[in-house]
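Table S2 (continued). Query chain:
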Amino acid sequence: MSTLTQMDVSSSLPEDLEKAKGVVAALSPFQQKAQEVRANRVNWQSYFQGKMIERPDFEFITRFESLTPEQKVHELMDPTVRLQSARTFINLMGQISKDQTVQYVLTLLDDMLQEDKSRVEIFIEYARKHAESVWNPFTNMLNRPDPFIVNQASRIIAKIACWSRDGMTGADLQYYLNWVKEQLRAPNNEYLQTVCRCLQMMLRIDNYRKEFINVEGVSAVLSALGSKQNFQIQYQLIFCLWCLSFNASLAERMSKSDVVRDLSDILRDTVKEKVIRIILATFRNLLEKPTEPETSRDFAISMVQHKVLRQLELLENKKFDDIELTEDIQALTEKLQTSVQDLSSFDEYWSEVRSGRLEWSPVHKMDRFWRENAMKFNENNYQVLKALIKLLEASKDPLILCVASHDLGEYVRHYPRGKSVIEQLNGKQCVMRLLAHEDPNVRYHALLCVQKLMVQNWYDPLSLSLPCALRDPSLSLSLAGSTSASSWRIPTSPSRPNPKATRRFSIPLSLLFVHGV
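Corresponding output:
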């Protein structure tokens, strides 16, 4: 196995995340439990008398647990003691089933490694000498029912993986990172902060970053961030994304995730300076690290779309003592302002669609936009249209459904073959279902879209009679029955509604064949 290589992030990260400034503000639930475990010494004499452990292990563990840190340094310089230490810890882990004792053994071992990270080589040497896997004794612990044992074993795995010369590879690495990923997704994980700590350590190593991306780890981090975590866990999770963003190829792969959207939401709501700092540092990496200009441009568009510039303006008015944070605010502001100048209206539109957060921004209601860009909706195998239709299928938000229906109708109105394209993509069926939606505004915009889909040679019979509705789609609309047609009643002045002053337009009943309209 080759020696582990670390990317440029390693020089800017503390060697020991346990002692890193700002990483731990208070004792985590795991650390509190570890203090309790250390205080409960094990009666090793009873294990020895019951022949549950052998004499060499009994003699080593009873002596070792009483040593001071300085005495341990001297003892573990002896090759024979080093070998016996690894043998004893591994034997105790495999021979004892009582949870309380296993907790104590693992905590003693974790403390031993924490005191001197070079001690991980003791276990590497032992495994090599006996032609055994150094990982199996610890990965087996990940299947125990006791959560403290599981997470203490995880900490030891991370330390050996990060501090040994050869590191972790292959199936062992994939297994461990998949375990971490599942722990990030686990609901109500009381030791989530400890899981994040392990991942912070692992993602200092570039090889581990690549594998974490390969096991779809980014989505797990974003999922954990979306669970309303406290600011400490937010910081740790975003720290992991920051580590990933130092690798250019991985940053490019992250462009396909919702990382900008989710971090923008946290940036808008947080008041913690260290969370703000790590978010902006991540954003800066996402703009600067990718080698493909298109990737940096996509990130910039997404940041603009998610109102990062507005947040930067607010942050500029605050006083921060951290010079690097101030520099990040200035650098990001300059880059995003430059990007805004280069953006076309279609770039903005496509960014909004990809974000899945449609709203009545000006571009949706500009005839010029649709005249100039309708053909672009056909590019890349109709990716924009497919995204809109997917929103119609999946979204529960009435506003998104209104805007998506409106946009499909505008595409049909401005592109001669739009009707057949939408039908081929099953868009018409999606819109028809919305005619029975509980929200009257959704029904209204779905109805307009259906009309545009059903008219053979499209013209705009409503453009003169419905300007107010198109300008203000939030108007509440109602249907009035008629023997030959159904009529929508729309206030003539949205700013000064007058229930007696209404405009009517009639739509043939043949268009209203879905129940519930």
